[in-house]
Amino acid sequence: MLSKEEITKEDYILTNINLEGYYVIKLKDGNSYKIYKEGSRDYILKNNKKVYLDKQVQNLVLGSIREYERYGI
Fold first, then answer.
1. pTM score, whole prediction
2. How far apart are CA 68 and CA 73, in angstroms?
3. Nearest to 54 by CA among 7, 1, 14, 3
4. How far is CA 39 from the centre of its chain?
């Protein structure tokens, strides 16, 4: 279930929170994916495979999460 590909800044559009209360990442493929944590790395499930966020995208996601927590929705 492990994939070698990573989500890069070129794939990334935005981070959002959905109505169920978890964070999702929207990619240029037009889909949104739930963000999962594994230790210090974040990943999504795409085609039933773990696809990790690269460090740059992970920093963008964390920045968005901090902003949501600071200012609310």
1. 0.85
2. 6
3. 7
4. 15
